[in-house]
Amino acid sequence: MNTVLQVRNLSKDFYLYNPGRVIDGCRDVSFSLREKEFLGITGASGSGKSTILKCIYQTYRVKSGEIFYFSPTAGCVDLTKIPEREITRIRRQEIGYVSQFLETLPRVTARQIVEDSALEAGVSREEAQKAAEEVLNYFKLPLSLWDIYPYMFSGGEKLRLNLAKAMVKTPRLLLLDEPTASLDEDAKKLVKELLQKLIQKGTAMIGIFHDLDFMRGLCDHVYNMAHGGEAGKGNL
Amino acid sequence: MRSDPALSLKNLTVCYGGGCEACRGEMAKGMKKNRCPVCGSIWALREVSLSLFSGEILGVVGESGSGKSSLLKCLYFDEIPLGGQLTLPDIAENAFSLSRQAQRRIRNAHMGMVHQNPMLGLRMDYSAAANIAENLIAANCRNVRLLQDRIDELLDIVEMSSYRRRETPRHFSGGMQQRVQIAKAIANRPDILLLDEVTTGLDLSVQAKILDVLKKIIRDFNISAVLVSHDLAVIRMLAHRTVVMLDGKIIEQGLTDQVLEDPQHFYTQQLVHSLLCI
Q1: Chain B residues touching residue A112 (CB < 8 angstroms)
Q2: CB distance A103–B237 less than 8 Å?
Q3: Inter-chain CB proximity B269 and A17 less than 8 Å
Q4: Which residue among A60, A87, A107 places its CB closest to the CB of B208?
Q5: Cα–Cα–Cα angle for A65, A69, A72, nearest 5°?
Q6: Nearest-CA neighbor of B246 among B264, B261, B220, B222?
């Protein structure tokens, strides 16, 4: 299987002018990920798990280190060095990011949010409509909610919509930042099944979950922030 | 988004007051504030360089007086800069050095502007239809039937009933005036849309409607846009990249989430933290 991502000696800190202090994000993180692999990141709150994901997604600018992403279109690129334009393209077409929170414009329906996400990946409007309906159906979002603005959804419904938005593109690399935090057991089962399906299609994933039961059977590798390295295959 | 820039700006400099030997000299050394202590001239823009790519929305944030509106005025050829180079597709020369007539032609064919104050963008005593027609006629559309059809189409795009086309904007609400401005700005299918604080002063439901309309227009017609706003939530929702301005200079730029979640400059941190503290 081909390598999708290689992170080498990644370090990040935050300098806050007020009160003039440096806050550690993460230090000397290294790992690699291949197609169809799932890397789980574990560690205490504040240990830097989300920082790693945000550095890969380039929401955070890294202090030092390299993040090599093997793009099917652009070849091997260091995400920390390529132009913003290229990052935007890779985000739209190849790397997905799912957090606990749904960020969207007001007055946009759930169906439109998922369709727009598919359109960004470059498919036709008809294909986007079809893909959006399929994924909304898959996540069992009631049909009556499809044409409603998500501000009135429950927390679980918003989360399912957020997942649908990311997964409608079948990304090559999917970053999951506690996306199942407020889901019930049935919804978690659905998410797990869909993640497994995406893995079968070749998607590589890095996930942060506090629910170790959820990670069991899904993770190929675990990166433990406390130990600063991999704890071994499937070892939770 | 395609990879060619829709607009490329290099070393744009605007000075209100003419400047003096002292501040022209200080400029090179990096004057801290944009007001010359000797002659009082305001250096509204100091060697600003940026690119806007096709299909991209570029957010511009900064405090009042930082040069955001001056930047838009220069791009719309409303302001003559002291120096700088504007490169547009298919135009070999620096667009700032073209004749006023040539600049007007570029503006009519390729650009649209939505002002914060509708009084600047609309003729309040002309009907909504006449306001929109003004831009169409300026771009050589003279067929009355085509004009009427296009005006109806534009009013439909901005979600306004076409029966209000004969009414004057003076009698419209703020949100409706902004939508007429947007219809007027996109009348000639511009490549570049310049948006100056388009939602400021409007109530939240109207803001949402305007943002929705803008997002659809920019996506459906593959327009590039420069969006000036004080509202970081608006920038976050719409802009792909963002530049932060202070005292006439760009102090920070990057992907919008980078600038808002990992601000590097002291002023950007203050701006973002003020928002989070509310």
Answers
A1: none
A2: yes
A3: yes
A4: A107
A5: 165
A6: B264
Distance from the B176 Cα atom to the nearest Cα atom in chain A, whole angstroms: 17
Of B56, B237, B264, the CB nearest to A105: B237
Half-sphere exposure of B101 (CA within 13 A, CB side): 0
Fold held by B5-105+113-122+193-277:
Rossmann fold (3.40.50)
**ipTM confidence:** 0.87
**One pLDDT digit (tens) per residue for chain A, 236 residues:** 799 999 999 999 999 988 889 999 999 999 999 999 999 998 888 889 999 999 999 999 999 999 999 999 999 999 999 999 999 999 999 999 998 788 887 788 999 999 999 988 888 889 999 999 999 998 888 999 999 998 888 877 888 898 899 889 889 999 999 888 777 888 788 888 888 888 998 999 999 988 888 888 889 999 988 765 555 544 45
What's the gap in Å between the CA of A90 and the closest CA on chain B? 12
In whole angstroms, what is the distance from residue B56 CA to residue B238 CA? 10
Of residues A18, A88, A116, nearest to B255 (C-beta): A88
Q: Which domains does chain A have, with CATH numbers?
A: 1-94+172-236 (3.40.50.300), 104-170 (no CATH)
CA gap A151, B21 in Å, rounded: 57
How many CB contacts within 8 angstroms connect chain A with chain B? 58
